[in-house]
Amino acid sequence: MSDQTETKAARDVGVVIQESENNRPVIEAIEQDNPACTISHSPGLVRITAPQRIVITQETVEEKLGREWETHEFQMAIVSYFGNIQEWDDDEIVIAWDH
């Protein structure tokens, strides 16, 4: 039973983003802010997975984009996600499983 609990606690979350010039800085920002993430490329899509949670911060995305970025713009980039949106405000988006 202990092994199942540990496996559940480390369950990956993820997001699939359309690969484009506009989204590349967003992908780079996610990678920077989530050092444990894994990035997989397939034609037209980028899948980012991480153990337990992914955080997308407005500040890092703006640094990568070189302009202001509103978190609602993320809706235009994502194709799908797995996990739960635990927080989505003006400063950051957090995807994680509810335990």
Keywords:
4 helices; alpha+beta; globular; Phenol Hydroxylase P2 Protein; MmoB/DmpM family protein; mOase_MmoB_DmpM_sf; 99 residues; 3-stranded antiparallel β-sheet; 30% helix; disordered N terminus; 7 strands; 4-stranded antiparallel β-sheet
Number of strands: 7
Mean pLDDT, rounded to whole units? 91
Counted by DSSP, the helix tally is 4
CATH architecture: Alpha-Beta Complex
Helix content: 25-40%
Looking at this structure, what is the CATH superfamily?
A: Monooxygenase component MmoB/DmpM
What is the CA-CA span between the terminal residues? Answer: 16 Å
Structural class: alpha+beta
CATH class: Alpha Beta
Counting structural domains, the number is 1
DSSP strand content: 35-45%
Name the shape in a single word.
Answer: globular
- CATH topology, by name, is Phenol Hydroxylase P2 Protein
Order of helices and strands: HEHEEEHHEEE
Please give the radius of gyration in angstroms: 14 Å
What multimeric state do the chains show? single chain
Major sheet characteristics: 4 strands, antiparallel
- The strand order across the widest sheet is 2-3-1-5
Low-confidence stretches: 1-7
InterPro entries: MOase_MmoB_DmpM, mOase_MmoB_DmpM_sf
Family: Belongs to the TmoD/XamoD family.
Protein name: MmoB/DmpM family protein
Pfam families: MmoB_DmpM
